[in-house]
Amino acid sequence: MRGRRSILKLLMERRSIRIFRPSTMRDEIAEMIVGAGVRAPTTTQLQPYTVIQVRDEGLRKAVADLCEGFEELVRDAAAVFLVCVDLYRVSRVLDLLGHNHVLKTDKHPVESVLAILDSALLIENMIIAAEALGYGSTILDYPLISPKEFAELFKLPRGVTPLILLCVGERGESPPLRPRLPLDIVFQKDRYEDVPDEDLEDYLKFMEKAMEREGYVRKYAKVNMKYLEYLRTKTILDEHVKKVNEAVEKYLRENLLKF
Ligand SMILES: Cc1cc2nc3c(=O)[nH]c(=O)nc-3n(C[C@H](O)[C@H](O)[C@H](O)COP(=O)(O)O)c2cc1C
């Protein structure tokens, strides 16, 4: 599908792709992507995740309907994977060992954080595998925000938490690299050094310029807003956000993610 690219080049050039040319994916390719995902490091071999590929057309349509603003992306992707944090299966495996195990407690923050971390490593491996096979991808976080709807749609048992959708497809756009903080802010030597406000302000300006140049907000959110204004609307603490967070917290606790 594509010539040789070194892994490092592939990592440095990856961008989220949100416009796909409609296509399908052969089962062997999907298996290769998920197969690469599960080779990621995993705590104690327990793989606290499950990946569900959305194959059925009606189901794909229902998933697209839950992803407001990204319906076309979900529709046109060659493959859509729902990644779930699955402490239900881990708990069942531990039950078989017959001991008083940690998932029976009311709080298990370590296992909860590690389960999410394991899932993230799986997802990144899948993204890189998809890139190596010539596909683009993007993560959508609707499952985390609307867990009940996704759990109902996929008939998930308690303890299986929908986390993200990974949409993989044939690139229909070639966006620029998106901005990142200067490396010396995130990569420090020997001790933690606080960043002066001016450096953070510089980064905000740099980010605003880069995102404006791309026309990011108009292209994907389809609103006429500057990037920083958009960032404010995405991160504002209002009554709606409080409600969503309360609902998500309750859902996570009921589903074994107990912090
Ligand atoms: C946990 C997570 C959730 C994300 N959710 C969404 C999403 O719901 N919609 C979206 O368009 N992009 C989503 N993204 C993609 C980011 O917006 C994207 O990675 C970021 O803008 C940087 O761009 P790049 O991936 O092209 O470097 C998500 C990324 C991560 C890591």
Topology:
Layout: H1 7-13, E1 20-21, H2 27-37, E2 49-53, H3 57-65, H4 71-76, E3 79-86, H5 87-96, H6 109-132, E4 136-140, H7 142-145, H8 147-153, E5 160-171, H9 183-186, H10 197-214, H11 216-221, H12 227-235, H13 239-254
Antiparallel strand pairs: 1-5, 2-3, 3-5, 4-5
The protein binds flavin mononucleotide.
Flavin mononucleotide is lined by residues 15-16, 18, 138-141, 164, 178.
Walkthrough of the structure:
- This protein has helices at about 5-15, 25-35, 55-65, 70-75, 85-95, 110-130, 140-145, 145-155, 185, 195-215, 215-220, 225-235, 240-255, and strands at about 20, 50-55, 80-85, 135-140, 160-170.
- The longest helix has 24 residues, at about 110-130.
- The protein is built from 13 helices and five strands.
Broad structural category: alpha+beta
Overall CATH architecture of the domain at 7-175: 3-Layer(aba) Sandwich
Largest sheet: 5 strands, antiparallel
Residue-averaged pLDDT, rounded? 96
Count all strands and give the number.
Answer: 5
How many angstroms does the end-to-end distance come to? 44 Å
Strand content: 5-15%
Which ligands does the model contain, each kind named once? flavin mononucleotide
Count of discrete alpha- or pi-helical segments spanning 4 or more residues: 13
CATH superfamily of the domain at 7-175: NADH Oxidase
The top-level CATH class of the domain at 7-175 is Alpha Beta
Envelope shape:
globular
What does this entry show, briefly?
With 259 residues, the chain is α+β, with helices and mostly antiparallel strands. The chain is built from 13 helices and five strands. It has a domain at 7-175: NADH Oxidase (3-Layer(aba) Sandwich).
